[in-house]
Amino acid sequence: MMSKIVLNNNFPTTKKEIESIIKGYDSINQYIAKGTRNSIKKTQLESGKIVTIKSFKIPNIINKFIYKFFRQSKAERSFEYANKLVNLGFLTPLPVAYIEETTTIQFLKSYYLCELVEADLTYRELVEIPDYPNKIEILKQFTQFTYQLHEAGIEFLDHSPGNTLIKKVGENSYDFYLVDLNRMNFHTKMDFELRMKNFSRLTPYNDMVEIMAKEYAKLINEEETKVINEMWKKTEEFQTKFHKKQERKKKLKKLIGK
């Protein structure tokens, strides 16, 4: 097995330290997220910096070949896109390194390391807690942040509730950090429909969509009604597809169970 380690040279670590962390990954018991596909753990570097390590699952037999020869790994894309965001002036946990484990003919595992950001909340809390403190103002500032992404031509394909960390930095001021970065498009310009679609995965609630749509309408100097209607239309389209997919999964589980 071969390991490829690529470092952010501006971050205080070494290939030897990163290699040691990955070799001991299974023994790290501090989980941030534990999923069936990917997991995220955290550990401390010799410098005292706390980093998170995202472990991507081994791909299926076909993708083992595709990722080896034709496509960037999710870890490499996460690292590359994080650097792009930082260079464009957007916030994301600072990239530290990515690691790929391969053989001569197939791709195995990959890891992405970034600095830990201690956030106060994610967008998910705004969805799940109806009376979250200062919710309207946070949504407005989140919308301003998304508008800035769009103006820079950044389409964050996983713009969903758990993928924006929110940090309170003042009495009425918040910073927004993008995470889970391996699916992004970079455009010269984003049209209105694409911008509206980029809000579709965030919330199923009309009142939240309306707050964001009204704020976005101001930013692009467009009629409120037009923005509200289009943003809600895209949200409903996503919700319909999402629930149909969930139903298919349930039916498949029942068939497998039989």
Please count the helical segments. 8
- The N- to C-terminal Cα distance equals 39 Å
**Whole-number radius of gyration?**
20 Å
* Strand arrangement across the biggest beta sheet: 1-5-6-4-3-2
Main structural class: alpha+beta
Q: Which bin fits the share of residues in helices?
A: 40-55%
Principal-axis shape: globular
Instruction: Give helix and strand order, one letter per element, not per position.
Output: EHEEEHHEEEHHEEEEHHH
| Number of distinct beta strands | 11
Oligomer: single chain
Mean of all residue-level pLDDT scores: 93
Largest sheet: 6 strands, antiparallel
Share of residues in strands: 15-25%
Query: Which stretches are low in confidence, meaning pLDDT under 50 for 5 or more residues running?
Result: none
